[in-house]
Amino acid sequence: MTVTGPSPETMLEMQRRMLRIRVFDERASKMVKRGQIPGTVHTSIGQEAQVVGACMALRKGDHITGNHRSHGHPIGMDSPLGPLMAELVGKATGVCKGKGGSLHLADASVGSLGESGVTGSSIPIAVGAGLSAMVLGENRVAMCFFGDGAANQGVLYESMNLASTWKLPVIFLCENNHYALSTPSHTVTAGRIVDRASGFGMPGVRVENGQNIMDVYTAVAEAVDRARRGEGPTLVEVMTYRFREHSEGLRINVDYRDAAEKAIWLARDPVVMFRDVLIAQGHATAATMDQMEADVAQEVEDCANFALQSPDPAPGVAFEDLYTEPYTLENVL
Amino acid sequence: MTVTGPSPETMLEMQRRMLRIRVFDERASKMVKRGQIPGTVHTSIGQEAQVVGACMALRKGDHITGNHRSHGHPIGMDSPLGPLMAELVGKATGVCKGKGGSLHLADASVGSLGESGVTGSSIPIAVGAGLSAMVLGENRVAMCFFGDGAANQGVLYESMNLASTWKLPVIFLCENNHYALSTPSHTVTAGRIVDRASGFGMPGVRVENGQNIMDVYTAVAEAVDRARRGEGPTLVEVMTYRFREHSEGLRINVDYRDAAEKAIWLARDPVVMFRDVLIAQGHATAATMDQMEADVAQEVEDCANFALQSPDPAPGVAFEDLYTEPYTLENVL
Amino acid sequence: MSIMTYIAAIGAAQREAMVADKRVIIIGEDVESNVYGTTGESKQRAESGDFVHQFGHARVRNTPISEEAMVGAAIGAAMTGLRPIVDLSYSSFMYMAMDQLVNQAAKNRYMFGGQSSIPVVFRSAMFYGLNTGAHHSDRPYPMFMTVPGLKVIAPGSASDAKGLLRTAVDCDDPVLIFEAVPLWGQKEEVQDDEYWIPFGQARIRREGTDVTVVAISGAVPLAMKAAEQMEAKGISVEVIDPRTLVPLDIKSIIASVRRTGRLVITEPAARTCGAAAEISALVCEAAFDALKAPIKRVTALDMQVPFSPALEPQIYPTTERIVAAIQAVCAA
Amino acid sequence: MSIMTYIAAIGAAQREAMVADKRVIIIGEDVESNVYGTTGESKQRAESGDFVHQFGHARVRNTPISEEAMVGAAIGAAMTGLRPIVDLSYSSFMYMAMDQLVNQAAKNRYMFGGQSSIPVVFRSAMFYGLNTGAHHSDRPYPMFMTVPGLKVIAPGSASDAKGLLRTAVDCDDPVLIFEAVPLWGQKEEVQDDEYWIPFGQARIRREGTDVTVVAISGAVPLAMKAAEQMEAKGISVEVIDPRTLVPLDIKSIIASVRRTGRLVITEPAARTCGAAAEISALVCEAAFDALKAPIKRVTALDMQVPFSPALEPQIYPTTERIVAAIQAVCAA
Ligand SMILES: Cc1ncc(C[n+]2csc(CCOP(=O)(O)OP(=O)(O)O)c2C)c(N)n1
Ligand SMILES: Cc1ncc(C[n+]2csc(CCOP(=O)(O)OP(=O)(O)O)c2C)c(N)n1
Ligand SMILES: [Mg+2]
Ligand SMILES: [Mg+2]
């Protein structure tokens, strides 16, 4: 069976989610600069097609795990923005009560099991979600997002081998944005990541133009479909690019990405490109797109205000959730 | 450049080393049964061609690391047997002063950096030896031995990627004896191990008949030659079989290896087969082979007596070598 | 009641837990063939006692040698509906999975504000004193005590092992259970029916009035022997086994020290930053006024484990060293 | 002499070591571009101050994100002629390499009867108190103190950092150096020429007669502030920084406690089984008779680290908590 293309409604929703990531991350970046968000954030700006194309191939009940480049994944699953932004700001209304922050988000309401600040570390968690699906006979799929840098961590190959031998419904989604922090992928990665799949008995698919959301969606939907049929995991490598620095506020004075390369990729803006597609295919007009962008801008405006106006977590919240039973200060002091 | 075949002398030395492993391990097995060797040992009986064919492709100055199936590797590098057997017995004259035992042997005199009781754990150590060779400009090669079971440990893939990107002179030698303890390789391993090489930008070679020492030698010699030329690492998977139980004294009442399979492999005894080859090719006669076997039997007899008659390590030896500077009991009590 | 070995009690608890709750699964290397003896009545696959036969391959699963993925998958499975028991065999292999244990198992629930719970049990066996060498002889439980979010238990007897393992499986938090292999063969009267021993409740193995000996895991029988020997000398020794180290029943220990005024702590782990150090520090903080003598620790030495039988016994606590410590604190 | 920050002192020591010995190499993620600021004068690659320019790519190597292989390769390289410095960046990432650190670095020389030595330095930074969340805020040095065979150091100032790192690089055993990022920006007078500070020698940061405060790593400046505040109140506080935890200069600590009769220990690690617990136990064993009051610990709580600035400061020791502890032991 092949996957039928997405409906116009789905395509419009894709654009909406890409916009939500774009505007949310742009706002988060500003809020870091203004000191409204403590620490730092890693934006998915430029990678929206790769994120949303993958997430839209999933359905309610499926699970995802992710990494430090974290907001895009839950937003791609349609997380409400308010609790996410409140989490970045460290407020009581944050999706993790202000205890996780940007790098360590989870939103159970959309199947997000957790973004891991430790790269690669959340990969086997998704394998476990696949295991429980199989053992409990629940027809769900688990997808883990990780970068080209994390693709050099051994746990990925242990996880691929385990998922493959057990034929678990898991998608290994490699976000290849060509760099791990300041390190060019080709200088630390032997061979092509996608080619590592076959040695572990699973198909490997590479989306060469990860800026084109339809390409990403089609490839991932095929993999998800395969997983649901009980045929096991797939490795999907999506070629993309981050438009901004590794993390907000980070200053690396070495030009590790050359200007020409940057220019080429910046011209491939997934949000702009797909807007044109939607209009060209008659699914939208400039006016409806402008409206959508205005709506998203308003939504992000609201979530930022919600976050900034929310109260700080009460001091005692720091001492909750270490264990399932209540844990009093007396225990820890 | 292709590797020229081994000289008759080399071929005779191959047989001698295989015999030394065979008889040494048979003796060690008996000594475990008699309670002369504490703990257990893992024999390489049946895998002699795989071990010696690989070791003979190396030369003095090269390094090896290994695993719990440990004696074969240093013997393959021509370790003196006395200190090895004394180590298994836990004597002062042991190659590690009686502090390592069977699973944790090292013999610096032949370039053995250490057999690791923790499977897979010695793999990156060999990568480090390759790194020092390159940085210091020393033309040596490092080879790590690991099993089909260890091939599912992530550290192998991190190590292969690192050696490959840095083009280090490292040979990854997988001893595929089809089982990890009681677990059939195919039940826990997706795809073929050899096929995992290409995804990490290195050649993978599989020796289908690992009982034939010439096949093993040729394949490994090519890989070593490549490494010496500065062309980087190779993964060599050698198909073989262990003739005995996973470890001596271990009793698993489940027949995890079926009789038919066992019979086929036991008929492929590398020591018997190569003896016939040497005679058929006129490099030896039945008489010279009998003599070699008698000499090795005597050598093993002597090493066993040496081991049994050697003194126990002095109590204080337990408190040496934790650090390079002397460490007195006062520090630890 | 029946007389049962420690390892049989572990097996019994696993079987009971598998019967009681379909969400419980066992994963690990060679669990299907029952290599380590806790997933079958005997090692005979043919027998009905075998876990694979009783519960099926879906719930009793051999894993590749991939500790990190195995542990991570167990955590992910626990976050999504299963209650896995992971058999890590030797404690010395836990380091392969350290990131998953420390960064995922211990932190996820907390970091994510309680959105998930992680009901998973990690079993490992401390094979020390058996000439297995430094790669197979670690007693690393203190390392895990330093990690908030993990529960760490170390049963000292068969009956404790059964009741505590049941509690561990029913616990909604990650639990690490450390079994001392020198105890595996030790027998004790064990209830045949199901029972659960709550965490954080020490067991007073022997009452006494002159000195308190806190003994952990494999050190418990040594402490009991030492107590008998001292009794002959007219010194009354109270032996307490905390049984669970996180949470730790410090109240019972302090109450005992307030009665006796003297404390010796013995455990098979190395000295530096061990459980004994923590207990010593807690007592010194909370019951300093009651102390009549210095607190003494009888632990393994800060040394790796040598293979030779001529060397290895020097590393661990012995009845003799415990006796000497008791005499020293009683003389003070 | 010049005024230097802690992180600049680390960079200076690395540069001196690279100049002094061709066998010294630096490997780690993003070391070539000097992301963390210890492999270049500034972050300007163009500048001659940059390590890659000065020493070349063969000796300053970016690694893939493969902590386990990176650490293992460094160990193997150290066994065969190099003296690597491994930059592991955040301490919280060390768990990925735990097996290599514990089973190889700490055990190889011992298991193999001294056939090899392992001169390697593992640098990692404890980024706590900076709202980086639980995956980036660990202070795990006590975990490594439990492993015989490793040396564990935690410099508390810029001058100590420079001298101790030089000693670490010249040491023939594996050394783990934990740098507290809250100290990275702290300045101190540092000798411009080369010098080495021996391991196992505590530094008395301040002499005093009423109470001894042992302060570790990031807790040192807090203890110094507390001491000043107490001086105003007429209480004379001696502040000791052990500087190296394995080996530990317990003799100097005991000597001080014998003078003052009172002890407070403060450190940024969690309480259970921390360095403070070990020091407390050692002092209670060796100087019980000299103690006039209970030993108090002021450590991080046994809690994971929350992200929110409204929550995180509650987790760590503060000057206020140290002051309270000093007053408590002086009142006793
Ligand atoms: C185990 C571990 N090592 C190192 C880091 C530090 N670090 C954070 S992000 C990053 C780069 C990750 O690159 P990639 O996986 O390609 O993701 P990207 O940032 O490019 O999206 C590094 C090295 C980490 N968080 N975890
Ligand atoms: C990290 C680790 N996990 C598990 C073990 C226990 N163990 C020892 S040998 C072995 C099987 C190894 O199989 P393989 O790598 O194929 O080597 P073989 O014994 O077949 O030569 C296992 C699981 C170990 N020593 N180390
Ligand atoms: Mg990347
Ligand atoms: Mg095998």
List the helices and strands and how they pair.
The complex is a heterotetramer, with two copies of chain A (333 residues) and two copies of chain C (332 residues).
Chain A: H1 8-33, H2 48-55, E1 63-67, H3 72-76, H4 81-89, E2 112-116, H5 123-136, E3 142-147, H6 154-165, E4 170-176, E5 179-180, E6 183-184, H7 185-188, E7 204-207, H8 213-228, E8 234-239, H9 259-266, H10 270-280, H11 286-309, H12 329-332
Parallel strand pairs in A: 1-2, 1-3, 3-4, 4-8, 7-8
Antiparallel strand pairs in A: 5-6
Helix pairs in contact in A: 1-2, 1-10, 1-11, 2-8, 4-11, 5-6
Chain C: E1 2-5, H1 6-20, E2 24-28, H2 51-55, E3 60-62, H3 67-79, E4 83-90, H4 98-105, H5 108-111, E5 121-126, H6 141-145, E6 151-153, H7 158-170, E7 175-180, H8 181-184, E8 187-190, E9 203-206, E10 211-215, H9 220-232, E11 237-241, E12 244-246, H10 250-260, E13 263-270, H11 275-286, E14 296-300, H12 319-331
Parallel strand pairs in C: 2-3, 2-4, 4-5, 5-7, 6-7, 10-11, 10-13, 13-14
Antiparallel strand pairs in C: 1-8, 6-12, 9-11
Helix pairs in contact in C: 1-7, 3-4, 9-12, 10-11
Bound molecules: thiamine diphosphate (TPP) (2 copies) and magnesium ion (2 copies).
One magnesium ion binds at residues 147-149, 177, 179-180 of chain B.
